[in-house]
# Entry
Amino acid sequence: MQKWKHDVWVGLFVLLGAAAILFLALKAGNLLTLNFEQGYTVTARFDNIGGLKPKAAVRSAGVVVGRVGSITFDTQGYQAQVELNLNKGVVFPKDTSAKILTSGLLGEQYIGLEPGFGETHLAQGDSIKSTQSAIVLENLISQFLFSKAADDNGAKGSAK
# Structure
């Protein structure tokens, strides 16, 4: 009987530890948000979203003010349409701009909001007009290499 009690307590302790590790893993991967307040949703269109994923952070001045909801492709405008779920107590002017930024050199991507100076505020269903797409590192490297190759060919052509 005594051994059975110890087995139950050890089992409960192991289950509690596994639940804590699962909770921390989901929280660290931005897959779990415990915000039960209803906010409002706005959309933004980007030419290139890079590696932006749903549930990525939406930040302003370094503070998380919301999360990316869904990402869809607009077949008429050939752009990515990103739904931003902003927190309830945070308001932004209608002329706010949105940029896709990266945490560090190769970190996760998030959306940065820069408030404008307008008098009216964004509301449910509004759209952010001023957007800047993600900077894709591979494109920058290829542009650098191609411009370097063009410079080298130009230098060889003028030396002949």
